Amino acid sequence: xxxxxxxxxxxxxxxxxxxxxxxxxxxxxxxxxxxxxxxxxxxxxxxxxxxxxxxxxxxxxxxxxxxxxxxxxxxxxxxxxxxxxxxxxxxxxxxxxxxxxxxxxxxxxxxxxxxxxxxxxxxxxxxxxxxxxxxxxxxxxxxxxxxxxxxxxxxxxxxxxxxxxxxxxxxxxxxxxxxxxxxxxxxxxxxxxxxxxxxxxxxxxxxxxxxxxxxxxxxxxxxxxxxxxxxxxxxxxxxxxxxxxxxxxxxxxxxxxxxxxxxxxxxxxxxxxxxxxxxxxxxxxxxxxxxxxxxxxxxxxxxxxxx
Amino acid sequence: xxxxxxxxxxxxxxxxxxxxxxxxxxxxxxxxxxxxxxxxxxxxxxxxxxxxxxxxxxxxxxxxxxxxxxxxxxxxxxxxxxxxxxxxxxxxxxxxxxxxxxxxxxxxxxxxxxxxxxxxxxxxxxxxxxxxxxxxxxxxxxxxxxxxxxxxxxxxxxxxxxxxxxxxxxxxxxxxxxxxxxxxxxxxxxxxxxxxxxxxxxxxxxxxxxxxxxxxxxxxxxxxxxxxxxxxxxxxxxxxxxxxxxxxxxxxxxxxxxxxxxxxxxxxxxxxxxxxxxxxxxxxxxxxxxxxxxxxxxxxxxxxxxxxxxxxxxxxxxxxxxxxxxxxxxxxxxxxxxxxxxxxxxxxxxxxxxxxxxxxxxxxxxxxxxxxxxxxxxxxxxxxxxxxxxxxxxxxxxxxxxxxxxxxxxxxxxxxxxxxxxxxxxxxxxxxxxxxxxxxxxxxxxxxxxxxxxxxxxxxxxxxxxxxxxxxxxxxxxxxxxxxxxxxxxxxxxxxxxxxxxxxxxxx
Lengths: 307, 508
Known about the structure:
Strand content of chain B: 5-15%
Number of strands of chain A: 2
Structural class of chain B: alpha/beta
Radius of gyration of chain B: 27 Å
Order of helices and strands of chain A: HEEHHHHHHHHHHHH
Largest interface: A-B, 39 and 45 residues
Oligomer: heterodimer
Distance between the termini of chain B: 77 Å
Number of helices of chain B: 17
Strand order of the largest sheet of chain A: 1-2
Shape of chain B: globular
Number of helices of chain A: 13
Number of strands of chain B: 14
Radius of gyration of chain A: 26 Å
């Protein structure tokens, strides 16, 4: 501005910038405190613990990479990782696929569609402990509802949760009952697709299947990516259903990684080793997440221009 | 703008003030959280079940605390009521005790016991923290690791060594030696020894958890069989079970048309958990789980393989014991299958007696008999022991409570009210229900402990993990998916490296 000394103007801007920065950090401080105190801090402490042998009741003893070396030899870790990978790589695609199909159906302008949406969404907000207990009764090997239905079809009884071969598929099936949780996400994504695209496609002679392949799926890919990404992160942490229904059995077939971690920490008193296991899981989940982001660059379509 | 009222507080100031306020609140919360916590008082009637469902011990109908008619094998006359040692020189103290005594265990038992204790020790205020049974150990070690352990708690014999060898528990020998009214010889040795390490006592057992075979007399009568004889053999068990197993059409295993998928009444059931199964395993032919020095497993030895196969054959070959699926079906809705006529014989723990005396139980004509008394018979006997935590604030008060529970009044009350079963020989008679049933009570449960009782030497740190592995490896055997040799080999391969090195994992 004319008449103002240049130096005086720069000092006022610096003071204002400093004040704004201070205010910004001040407003961020409650969250930052929580993050450091309740998340980052404990994570760093557990990283330290992973290099110790800590049996909780006695001081921790430094063992360097001993825990990690033991994990490399521990057959149970391999079993737990294998079970977890099976669960994740089977359940997540099924969950995403079914969620997408459900979202497509629930987007149709049918009478009473809101009732259907509610009905499909409700299971996902039922407490997982209650639903697991319910499914345990349904899959009860002798008189459960599932075997009764099989008997009506003339099929033999199955052991379900009591069979090492069937226990994981049964848990996956139980998990798919909550597929309605992803339905609102897909619905929101579908509503964001401009109708003009479908109209233009129809004018050009495209059918419904072409519309699905060339319009719906590409424009829904960010949502699908989100569901798959969060599904993988959740899948690797599967715990509750196995803890309640099978306790890792039969024959370790449902001994998932987090369940084994929990037992290692709180049943076997090996907190240091459990911490190392936690960091292994974190690394695996992070690696898969980054891999998915890499793949997403080619397969996920974002409307806004990329850098 | 001219004419508009200006705000006294700018938006920036408001947000700044709000942030400062939140920070202050957060700091106050943090300071409050860091303060030492006061002991909490136990809810008197929480809703959780007292023990894991399979081991739940509902009480007998409430009875007046009078002695029942002693059976032929009755024990010593009642000893004089001991006087508990006052805690901490008469000062008023608050005892903090972690427990799982909820539901009927509390209302029908421990609530009154606590009142009795406080009357005897007016300077001690008893407060408890009730925790679900499965969470007792995680909670205890977490509190201890956080520097806020309770003064005392109740621990079972299977898990106690883990905390003894990690220095959590206070040695009780000085208390025991100073108390001239406590006769440890009156406590069954196997129970007392199971809470000792390196010759030192770390808990006083307060109840008896031995096992025996319950049998349904009506089913035996209907099958034309003589009741089990205390001198019977394992082959006798199999022979009886084969005649007592019936499918829905009334056919027995081996008979044409027998439908193993529709068995209505099983001949014999046994619990597959390692610590329960051990008595059968060793009694059968001397098979063992571990060597005496705990350096290796013994599952792959011929005796172990034979024992495993014999008991697995009960389920899969002879079809006289229910499969895991059938067992699960029988237990649906929380029903105890022996009490509802699901099987004719069951090897299980003493706690079933209280359940069988509840109103409305279908099976009324039953008794108990000991496991076959072979040359290698064993009676691993579990139960709860009360402990004092090392460096507890009120260790003397915790000892006073422990001592009270082993005293005449508490043992008598526990037995007559069906809370638990007395652990002292002279008090055993109070464990028999007023009905006098089961007639074989003393022979099957108490005499066996006297003759064959042993403290499992492999309940050492690491056992929790070994037990999980053993249980998981036994699952395919009980399901008929794998034979005993392959099962034993799998257990040996997985466990031997761990068993060989368990001492290295002890605190240095």
